[in-house]
Design a protein that fits this description.
The protein is α/β, with parallel strands linked by helices and 194 residues long. It is built from four helices and twelve strands. It has helices spanning 4-16, 20-33, 60-68, 143-148; strands at residues 46-48, 72-77, 87-90, 97-99, 105-107, 122-126, 129-131, 136-137, 154-158, 164-165, 179-182, 186-189. It has a seven-stranded mixed β-sheet with strand order 3-2-1-6-9-11-12, with helices on one face. A three-stranded mixed β-sheet has the order 8-7-10. Helix 3 (60-68) links the parallel strand 1 (46-48) and strand 2. The protein is globular.
């Protein structure tokens, strides 16, 4: 099996080749699948999510759809300095987003601290690939693994259909996903090896 860096490069190149139409179609389908979420989405639920960058699957419409289900939505803010747990801010509307570190769109409201993620019932996690075993391939800095280690939330990796694989390399610090969400397949329960 290829190493993580080689896999990252391959998935990033394939994403870069997606047309805007392909990405928009996938984003629309992801929103549609929220109706079959494994976690009931209502006003009692806190959902952590992300604003996609580049060709990452997802959209601000996905965040708005979560709010449309009356969920409290948390978005990450990348802290200064070396990789560390993410800070979190409540998402209220599209116009509350501004460019932050690394050029990422981040919410501008009051910071809730790194422990705010502990209140989440479901976390939609960005990934370059997810394995049916639960292994998640991220970008490599470890921000998310540091942030979601040990929390009780349902963890859902979001990827394109071709990025759901049978297996991926994983290290001891990699936090496994319980579910994956893809545009074509919707929510799929993952099965960690026994």
């Amino acid at each position: 099996m290829a190493g993580k860096d080689e896999l990252r490069a391959g998935f990033a190149a394939r994403r870069a080749a997606l047309t805007l139409e392909d990405r928009d179609r996938a984003a629309t389908r992801l929103v549609t699948h929220l109706a079959s979420s494994p976690v009931l989405l209502d006003d009692t639920v806190t959902a952590a999510a992300y604003v996609p960058v580049g060709a990452e699957p997802g959209s601000v419409a996905f965040l708005d759809a979560l709010r449309g289900h009356s969920c409290t939505v948390l978005l990450p803010v990348v802290p200064p300095g070396p990789p560390a747990p993410l800070d979190w801010v409540r998402y209220d509307a599209r116009d509350s987003l501004a460019r932050g570190r690394f050029g990422l769109l981040e919410p501008t409201g009051p910071r809730l601290g790194v422990d705010a993620i502990s209140d989440a019932d479901v976390v939609f996690v960005p990934a370059l690939a997810v394995a049916r075993t639960g292994a998640r391939l991220g970008r490599g800095a470890g921000y998310y693994d540091r942030s979601i280690a040990g929390i009780r939330a349902t963890l859902v990796g979001i990827v394109y259909d071709h990025e759901l694989l049978d297996d991926l390399p994983a290290d001891a610090y990699d936090v496994p996903m319980e579910w994956v969400l893809t545009p074509g397949g919707g929510f799929t329960r993952l099965s960690p090896p026994t």
